[in-house]
Hints:
The protein has 3 helices and 11 strands; from the N terminus they run βββαββββββαββα. The chain is globular. A hairpin with a 6-residue loop joins strand 7 and strand 8. By secondary structure, the protein is mainly beta. The longest helix has 4 residues. The two termini are about 25 Å apart.
Amino acid sequence: MLIGTCLCEAAHWAMEGDPGPVTACNCSLCRRYGALWAYDYEADGEGRGDGGGRIGLHGPTRAFTRRGSGTPSLEIRFCPTCACVLCWRGLQVGQDGRRRMAVNVRLAPPEAVAHLPIDHFDGLDTFDDLPRDGRCVRDLWF
């Protein structure tokens, strides 16, 4: 179980299993937050079971939904006390009944995620996955 906690420790996310590679995106939102995203689907309210996914969100959070560029597809969840960005969450449930989520692995203990490879996504210009350059999370922290 991988857990990421906000600075004041009022809210956290938990992800079951191996998160796999994480994504660094340069879109106008992600570059401002500086997040590194690990993806899966939302679990039920207790963090497991009938939600169909491996990610549970716990504690108080508030949402930000970007306006002005068409119909929003996701919301950013953050701690209302310390403002740490915990995750993004899809606003629509897929045809399979699951809701896509991504957690900000920068909230996890460094030693738990340091080895994870980073995938780069050009969300600003081309909307393309970029070739892997061999860097891991530990390479962006120093």
